[in-house]
Amino acid sequence: MITVKKDSIIEDYHGTKVSDPYRWLEDANSSETVEWSNWMGKQCYDYFAPIGTRDTDRKRLEELWNYPKYFVPKKIKDKLYYQKNDGLQNQAILFRKDNEKETVVLDPNKLSEDGTVAMTNYAFSKDGKYLAYATSTHGSDWQEIRVLDLATGTDLEDHIQHVKFTSIIWSPDSSGFFYSRFPEPGSVAPEDESNYNKVYFHRIGDKQASDQLVHEQPEDKELMFSSFISDDDKYLCLYVFLGTATENRFYLRPIDSDEPFTRLLDKSDAEYQYVTNKDTTFYFKTDLNTPNGKIIAINLDNPDPSNWEEVIPEQSDVIDFVIALHDKLVIGLLHDAHHQLKVYRLDGAYENDIPLPILGSLTDISRSKDDNEIYFGVTSFLSPTVVYQYNLDSQKLTVFAESTLPIDTSDFETRQIFYTSKDGTKVPMFLTHRKDLELNGDNPGILYGYGGFNINMTPSFNPAILRWLEKGGIYAVANLRGGTEYGEEWHRAGMLENKQNVFDDFISAGEWLIENNYTRKEKLSIMGGSNGGLLVAACMVQRPDLYGAVICRVPVIDMLRYHKFTIGRYWIPEYGSADNPEQFPFLYKYSPLHNIEDGVKYPPVLIATAESDDRVVPAHAKKFAATLMEKADKDSTIILRLEAKAGHGLGKPTSKVIEEWVDFYAFLDKELQ
User: What positions does the domain Peptidase S9 prolyl oligopeptidase catalytic occupy (predicted)?
Assistant: First the structure.
């Protein structure tokens, strides 16, 4: 046992004095933090070492993971490019298929010995000669871009640094690509290293220092830019974002011009997503005054809103995405948190549905202008991604690639139910379990949720969950407010001052599972990551009596200081800021770190974070663990799992993912009674 230091820091927030005794843990490199982290690592090791189910679970998880995983292809110059993982490879490999011949284009597994360097983005030049690809090391959001010569299979000398969250957009003549980047470290104050985003053009063969500056707005240093080129190759376009706000701006200029961008949509009053354009008529998906979305047309010659044309009006279901192909629009709708596909003409006339074989989610979608085809992936809780090819002319749907699982999933089923939250709101929830499940209140359960940032929790496949189902467990996913399952109103009902609705929805989901005899509180666990880590931490603190165990992954915990770390300021539109006297009260009221009470017997909690997480820094998890260990009843179980060479989850190698689930199941096997 070590003596754990406590600071005497007290900060005044608009007249409310708040102590912060473990602020020293925010300095990851201090000797005190390193000593404390090593000590917590020893406690974690000692906790897991004697649990006898780990070897069995590891062996079975490796078996369940060992099936081919296919990704949606892209067609470039009559060649198909796609990623595939044969089974237990740490990273998926990029292949090219030409006349049925399959060739490896890029194998990220060769970029590091342990699989912790991942390819996170890639784009092909228009002429099909080059591949620009981004890599991330140890799960960092910071990435580097390199260029592969597809004819020789070797990298060029081009090397782009200081990028994250960037698009890679090749110019129509394939001479180079557009990207966005941040300042070089040391050239600005440390707190501004994720500010001053700029758009550049990189010409193949040049050094990055010679790249052409395309756009910057230093007077609005917190803005971020994402570039793309219009479907007709005539316009360079920019999305302009402030953090993670749903609302965005839209700028454009002729591709061959060096003139300033025309700020076509500059109010940040709604979401505007480019669909396509015909000459100077631009089509957008927007939620302006229509929370479920609509399609509008704006003519650049008459851009005043009074001249905007509504092409496809708002519907009862949410327009999740739209892609254009020639004179047609393929629209993905969300109906009760699962996808449906419909085809319209560009004039707004409905043509047909594209029937999906299962109740599930679209994983990705791509288009091939050459032959009027789309490719898309469909998945569900019990089906890995199946990739389909659909011809819009013949309306023919065929399977492009599908997997054979090492398990018969016909013994399991997924049901969707609707339960009532605290304020009377109906909330959907997916339940997956054995078909012969007995509703005797004695089944172990995992309740999973997220509830924020406009992110949908539609059906998705995770081979680790099959192991839980084999163990007789129930896997429940609640579609909480804060997502966009029911449009922007659903999102706004779970953000800022409405965030408590998300926690109420999740608590009500747990109560429903217990009241309907699916499980009991001693066997109910809750799980969430990132914003979902905030979710489960807040619900644990608010209702410690309701759960038998908590798995809190890469969590946001300190709601008064989250915006002071790395990119935390990006989340202010979603959460608010304690620096704002109007927003401080609701943040302080639910902040998990600041609502832990003395002497309370909290459910066993496994807090999982990673050393290289530069999105949600591990200081959140460390301060949470330290505060719980100080204040909670001494019989409370608090485990901090601090992973090396890993980040927020980006590009995590298969071996590390499996090992993480081995520990999750060891924890649940031990704690759920």
Answer: 460-672
